[in-house]
Amino acid sequence: MGNFRLQIFTVFLLSLAARLVVFFYFVVPPGDSAEFGTFVREIAANGGFVPSTNTLYFPGSPYIYPPLLFLATYWLGLLVSPIVGTGGILNLQIIFLIAVAFSSLTSSLIYWFLGPPRRKLDLLLRMILLSFFSADLFALTWGGLPYIVSEFFFVLVLVSFMKRGSRSQWMWIAAASVALIAFLHDLTYFVTVYVVLVFLVFDLVRKDYPAVKRTLIPVVIGGIAGVIWWLPRIQFIVSALTTRVSSSSGPIVQGSSAFSSYSGLVLPLIVLVILIFLELNGSRISGEKIKIDYIHVALISSAVAVVFLFLNPAVTARYALYSLDILMIGLLLGTQFILPQEGHNKHGRLAAVLLATVLVLVPVQFLAIEDSARFYTSSGYSYDSGIVSWAEKSHINGTVIAPYPMGDYLSSIDGVKVIPYDGYYYGVKEISLMSGAAGVIMNSTSNQSLTFVKENGIDYIVVQNTLINSSISNHRITFPYPDYKLVISSDYYTVYLVTF
Fold this sequence. Notes:
This protein is α/β, with parallel strands linked by helices and 500 residues long. 65% of the residues lie in helices and 6% in strands. The protein has 4 domains: 1-142, no CATH class; 144-242; 258-374, no CATH class; 385-498. Strands 2-1-3-7-6 form a 5-stranded mixed β-sheet, with helices on both faces. A two-stranded antiparallel sheet has the order 4-5. It is elongated and about 75 Å long. The termini are far apart.
């Protein structure tokens, strides 16, 4: 129907427009974006190379985050700064726009993979779902930028397996994608490796040994890339797997229900998996044949997310993002079988189940998007230009205790050394420092707090106005003189100078 290339370009433009709405809504990228901007700043402080130890982000902690996106942001910033000027916020906007572009490319990639639509209704459904129903829209509202960029390569891996046939060149594309993901995003890498290993088992069960040999290409190359980056940082992986959520988030948590809402997407996905099993089994009983392909296998294997639902809701919610990518491809592959056409097709019931599931998930997604956007513009988690301007003029040499994400804004924009006292963090050093900072907030005059402040060179404390004079664990949050002196108070935050 029509010009297929023009259709792909139209999907890209529609997706880009929808995601730019989020960009202009916030202006200053929200949530975790500030943390990632800090990593760019760490690289800049190290002359454009990946540091071994952080100087701004939990000062003294080992650098652990896959650096490829931050390196690209740093060098791109150097390239455009003569044109658009410099400024601490520039890197935040660059990394956000990179994610917006890759998200739009992901939608275009899926559309290309599906091939030309057969009917206008098929075309319309594809364009609407790929442009406006995307986990990326939610991820942008909390700053899941490395996930969004790596998601493109995750989808490319799925596409490579679906298109490979007897040709191995697609497996080299998959291998390069897995290797890139290893240096882009931690969770996406481990999910991708898990899915590829499931594909390997699928090939073995079918006794398709030529396919097994081809699947080993991304397994080996992707595995080597992961070992290069993650083996020296194995302690972080152990910490992430064994740390309780309460420890990784600290004792001071003002949570959003957005992740809880998105975790709810996992339950319909589990129901969907059960329905797929029933449909496939029913087809065998009735003598019909439905070919099980890699998308079916990937979607069924995503049921592992239910394990994390009881261990870590945040991880569950993020895992659901990958499940939705798989679900989207599976749905759109099947739409041609449920839209009006002549004759009967065996895949109709399965595709109908997929479509019904997505229609249920659409309102859940938009509720989560709205909740997340409202959360990151709330008084406790909003960007505050007044505090950022104060930090820029103050030329702070010491370390600052501050809340997430305001502390990360101070690091990424002003180059301030910061220890956050709340938020979701992993790593032994990081959790230890966060717990100490939270202890200062909860009881600023205790001997333990005063010792922590001295040992870590704390000059200032930034605290949310909503916390001041409130009580947590029977401790009233105050910063009394003469140990602390009020410096500035804005709409959202108050800053105290350490005077002892």
